[in-house]
Amino acid sequence: MGRGIKTYFSSFQKEFRKHLSTFITGAFAFVAALLWRDAIKSFLDRYQNYILSVFSIEDSWVADLFTAFAVTVVAVFAIVIISKILKTE
Predict the structure, then answer these.
(1) Rounded to whole angstroms, how far apart are CA atoms 31 and 24?
(2) How far does the chain reach from its first CA to its final CA, in angstroms?
(3) Where on the phi/psi map is residue 87: left (φ > 0), alpha (ψ -120 to 50), or beta?
(4) What is the rounded distance in angstroms from the CA atom of residue 52 to the CA atom of residue 45?
């Protein structure tokens, strides 16, 4: 009976470490995403008038929508490419 408890705790410890590692990695990814968001927002704030005039956009919400769509497309392509490069079999 003591051996079963020892095996259970060993298994629990492995699972705990795995999930803790995933949690910490996700936290770092979240912080990086927020930093990228701030960088993109600063860029857009700086060049907003230029972007609006180039695309003849009168409302800034349309520019925000266009930017969100463009960033999403770039992000999806980047994720697909990175997934293929880092694919492990």
Answers:
(1) 11
(2) 38
(3) beta
(4) 11
pTM for the full model? 0.56
- pLDDT tens for the 89 residues of the chain, in order: 557 788 878 888 989 999 999 999 999 999 999 998 899 888 877 877 777 777 777 777 777 787 788 888 988 998 889 888 888 65
Q: In the chain, what's the furthest Cα-to-Cα distance?
A: 76
Token look-up 């936290």 returns 27
**What tokens does 40 get?**
């993109």
Do the Cβ atoms of 57 and 66 come closer than 8 Å? yes
Which residues contact residue 58 at a Cβ distance below 8 angstroms, ignoring those fewer than 6 apart?
A: 52
